[in-house]
Amino acid sequence: MNSLASIGIEHIDAREWSCIDFISDIHLSAQSHDLMRGLETYLKRTEAHAVFILGDLLELWIGDDCLGDAHFEIERACAQMLKHSSQLRPTYFMPGNRDFLIGQGFMDQSGLSLLCDPCILETQGKRILLSHGDALCKSDLDYQAFRQEVRSKDWQNHFLALPLSERLSLAQKMRAQSQLKQSSLSQKDYAELDAPSCIDWLEQFNCELLIHGHTHRPMRHPLTPTLAREVLSDWDVNASPKRGQALRLLDGQLQRIEVF
Ligand SMILES: [Mn+2]
Questions:
Q1: Which CATH superfamily is domain 16-258 in?
Q2: pLDDT digits over 166-209, tens only?
Q3: All structural domains of the chain with their residue ranges
Q4: Cα 234 to ligand 1 centre (Å)
Q5: What protein residues have CB closer than 5 angstroms to ion ligand 1?
C-alpha cells in the first residue's frame, strides 16, 4: 500500500491504556528554549499512560547524523530530554512534513518508537487512525508533488549524502520558498485535508476516528454520521496567551488539555 511508510509500527494494540495523549506541531527550533522547557514540563507531568507525537516536533530536520555535530544544540538537547521522558511512559513519534527525515538514529537516541503514517491505534474500544495530515491535503497539487519527491529513496539518499552545512542551507531555502507561497495565500487557501480522502482512509482501515495535526486548526470535524476527524493544536510560547494543547483520550472520552 503506497500510503504506508516502509518502516515503523503500523498497528498498536493498546487496550490496557485508559489515558492517552496526542500532541503535534511543536516546531522546536534553535530560537525556542522556552518551548523546549514547556514540552519537558508537560512530558514530566502528564497523567497519560502513553504519548503520541504526530509530526513536526521540530521545525526542521536534515538528518539523524546532526546529533553527532556540536553545532546542532537544540536537536541534541531534544533527544536527551526525550530520553528521560520516554523512560516514564511509552512515547511514539510519527514524522511530519518538517521532520520527515527523522529516522531510527533519532529513535535510538531519544527512546521514542517510530510510527508509520498512517497507523492504527486500538484502544478503549475504539479503532483510531493516526496521521500527520499533510498526505491528505490533496488539493495542493504542488505540495503533493514536492512531498512525493522528497519522500523518495533517491531524493533522500542524494540529500543525506551532502555535508550537513549544505543540507542546512538547502533546507532553509526550501523553507523560505514555502513561507513565501504561504504569505501569498488567503486564509481559505491554507492547507486543509480533503474530506472524501479522509473518509476513504477511515473506511479502508476500518476506523471511526482520524486524529491528525498539520493544519493548526484544533477542532472536531464530523465527516459522516459515524466518522470524524480531530485536529491537534500547534504550540507557541510567544503567542499571547501561550498556545499548546494535548488531545486526551480518557476512558473512551476525548478532552483537550491546555499545557501552558
Ligand atoms: Mn505539518
A1: Metallo-dependent phosphatases (3.60.21.10)
A2: 999 999 999 888 888 888 776 666 789 999 999 999 999 999 99
A3: 16-258
A4: 9
A5: 56, 96-97, 214
